[in-house]
Amino acid sequence: MASSMKQSEKDSHQINRRDALKGLAGFAAIPLFVEPASGEQGQRGVNLARASVAPPLSTRLREQSLDQGWRFFRGDVAGAEDPYFDDSKWQRVDLPHDWSIEDLVPNSEATGEGTIWVGGNTPTRIGPFDVALSAGQEATGWVVGGTGWYRKHVLLPATDRHAQTEVRFDGVYMNSEVWLNGQPLGNHPYGYTPFAYDLTPFLKPDGENVLAVRVRNEGANSRWYSGSGIYRHVWLTLTGEVRIPRWGVGVTTPKISPELSVVEVSIAVENRRKIPQDAAVRSRIIGPHGELAGSGEKTAELPASSEYTVVHSFDVKAAQLWSHATPQLYRAEIELLVAGETVDRSTVGFGIRSIEVDTERGLRINGEKVKLKGGCVHHDNGILGASAFDCAEERRVEILKANGFNAIRTSHNPPSPAFLDACDRLGMMVIDEAFDCWNLGKNVDDYHLYFEDWWQRDLKSMLMRDRNHPSVIFWSIGNEIDGRREPKGVAIAKQLRDVVKSIDPIRPVIMAVPGPYDHNLPEWQANDPAFLHLDVGGYNYQWQQYEIDHKRFPNRIMMGTESFPIEAYDSWRSAERLSYVLGDFVWTGIDYLGESAIGHSILSQTPSWWRQQYPWFNAYCGDIDLIGDKKPQSYYRDVLWGRSRLEMTVQRPLPAGRTEELANWGWLDELRSWTWTGYEGKPLKVRVYSSGDQVKLVLNGKEISSKAVSESTKLIAQFDVPYTAGELRAIAFKDGQEIGSLAVKTVGRPARLRLKADRQTIPARRGDLAFVTVEITDAAGAPVPDIVRKIEFHVDGAGELAAVGSANPKDVASFREPTCRTFRGRCLAILRPFGHEGTITLQAKSDGLSPASAVVKCSSL
Q1: Are 220 and 139 spatial neighbours (Cβ–Cβ below 8 Å)?
Q2: Which of 212, 365, 686, 711 lies in disulfide reach of 81, CB 3.0 to 4.6 Å?
Q3: pTM for the complete prediction?
């Protein structure tokens, strides 16, 4: 389901924008907050004319995006909250915006710092990276936070006498303060939860209004890349004084059966007037294909200055259920009337589905057993930084789903609404996680400083915002919490659980509990108090403890909330075999910025200080790399999960006398390649992953070896094969019958570039993107799998280059300059429309290679 106040006009994942507007029968998209019609704003082709007389509320769209036309300054400045402050020289930005992914000034006057060099060779101020100024260092990927200011100049059309105007921020990292026309509205410390302010008391109805936001991402406050600034959407909501408040519509499904399901819609109605009001509340349930599934109306007497809840119950016959395999979505359309006139409307997406867990039958969705094939996911979008573009959020979910994942743990904070919208639409189950720390911090400047005063507000905002999403099947109250097993921590866990259950008594509550990596049993068992108030116990890297703990606590339901990639076989097989273990979540599903090099594989004799130091900036532990491509561990997981019967990789040749050493989260340096020029006659290590019982290798038509594969070998057969150019083929057998065949071939010399956009046509709006994969091929068009070349880009037409980069975890470079080095023969360019119709042409060239281009059309909705 989706957040209650944006489905009617924004949710492109569950409800098509045009369809949503059709559902709001009389609502016209008339601007409420618009840019002044002067200067560069007036040249963008947008109708900025002010309405001399406001249309009645029944013809307005209650919520609009406030993403465009902000001014931004990186640094602190006195007086920027003053509405008359001169910001004309500030940078123009459209949200979402993350300043930590943007290039630092090479010689910054603001900091007095210039380029610094390490070891006389490596410059440590490159693009967004600066070793000296990064407070988070390797934890945050060597980027720089600090303080930033945003300002937006807006005009407000004449409004209804009793109009209420509210601004909502989906996410600002972190410590934000907001002013309207110089009046302070409040502050919000946590960088991952939404917050809103009532603008009504300070608005100028007939003149320019100025919103000012100061953001302070200061000190060591995160264990991963957080980004900086207003990195999620901002929304403006205009209602009357009798209205449906923010997140005021909740949908539950107390009964589900093939014949008849019950849907209950709870609608909060707020009367902000000082006199009583009589109101009518109408509800309609619309099915996945636009069919009417139920309707009803109730009247309510609203006392002055009060909030009242109306509940509608609907019997839905032969409901189409939401599941990971069939993500069917319904919507509830709510209309609020006073004296026969519509004063407010809201549309909320939801799914009809049930959740059950126990030790004997595990997890059931709609009564069917499900094992969670999960990946932990941080919130950044790779080379875009933390900027939560809707299509980038959706793309991550699509990629994970395409690679076999059916569940995501949002580590370790609430995600963006767009991310959950995509999970709803695509059928991805979610563990929605609130916190990485409580009252005890993991960094000196992190959320523990604010926890005592803010935890209830932040937890409730997550629960209220996300409660209608069918993709959310668990609430997590924390990750690896310091003090979790002490009396104070146990008491906090109970408080958190009680708040969760007061809002949503149905979904199970979990917490991810860590143990020692050496699996010291007494140390692990000291965590017992941490499980007292959990419906499901989250086990981080502790698959060895499942059966031991089941004997001690036979009623404890368990889940592998984090696991090492290299232990994929044991982690998954344990979860698959044991009914009381609901699934396994690998750390991580997809690569992310920060926690630099925790997934490294390096050569022996590498100095220890180098192993997690600059220029590593990417964790490099994901099944999927930073630009969305499959890594070798994902091929192995395909076999474990039964998605493939046969996969094959080849380890990169090692220098004489050196071995490969893996970090805890690392994986062997393998490629699906048989192109190793210069290694002719030398043995290469080939690994075959198969669910068969025998695998055979054939080189250039000649059988060279055959080996058994089984559960005892963890479905792996390993060969040493002298390299000869040509074709290497693996064949898998089961009980003497061939069940699969896979070949890798030697490719020719690099000859040309190939560009492929994920979409040929995109909406002509600033919030959309096109992702263009850049690949080096030989003359015949075969990808060259392991080559580094510098690519130069040029963009023409109706858009710009939003970001460029590769999956290389230690190639520090600008993500904004029109040049990039490939990694394993690939890189990614991301295009962003200017906001008008036309075409965007991306041209790519590289010395010695034939150039290529891609054209993306930008069309109006």
Answers
A1: yes
A2: 212
A3: 0.92
CA–CA dist 310, 271 (Å, integer):
13
Tell me the CB-side half-sphere exposure of residue 524, using CA atoms within 13 A. Answer: 21
Contact 421, 399 (CB under 8 A): no
HSE of 286, CA atoms in CB hemisphere, 13 A? 17
Q: In what order do the strands lie in the sheet with 164-169?
A: 63-65, 234-239, 164-169, 195-198
Residue 347 and residue 249: Cα distance in Å, rounded?
9
The Cα–Cα gap between 660 and 240 comes to 66
Helix axes 487-503 and 451-466, enclosed angle (nearest 10):
30
Give the three-class secondary structure for 390: helix
Q: Using alpha carbons, list the distances in angstroms from residue 285 to 316, 329, 424.
A: 9, 11, 17
Interaxial angle between packed helices 632-640 and 568-577, expressed in degrees from 0 to 180 and rounded to the nearest 10:
30
Task: Name every residue whose Cβ is closer than 8 Å to that of residue 663 and which is 6 or more positions away in sequence.
Answer: 597, 598, 599, 600, 601, 611, 612, 621
Nearest CA-CA partner of 627 in 635, 636, 618: 618
Cα R_g (the chain), whole angstroms: 28
In what helix (H) or strand (E) does residue 824 lie, and over which residues does it extend?
none
Instruction: Of 521, 485, 353, give the one whose Cα is nearest residue 427.
Output: 353
What is the C-alpha to C-alpha distance for residues 496 and 462, in angstroms, rounded to an integer? 12
**Span 719-775, pLDDT tens digits:** 999 999 999 999 999 999 999 999 999 999 999 999 999 999 999 999 999 999 999
Q: Are 805 and 382 a contacting pair, CB within 8 Å?
A: yes
Rounded distance, CA 171 to CA 173, Å?
7
Cβ neighbours, 10 Å, residue 106: 11
pLDDT of residue 749: 97
pLDDT tens, residue by residue, 609-649: 666 689 999 999 999 999 999 999 999 999 999 999 999 99
Note the pLDDT tens digit of each residue in 415-454: 999 999 999 999 999 999 999 999 999 999 999 999 999 9
Residue with tokens 């400047």: 445
d(CA 96, CA 573): 41
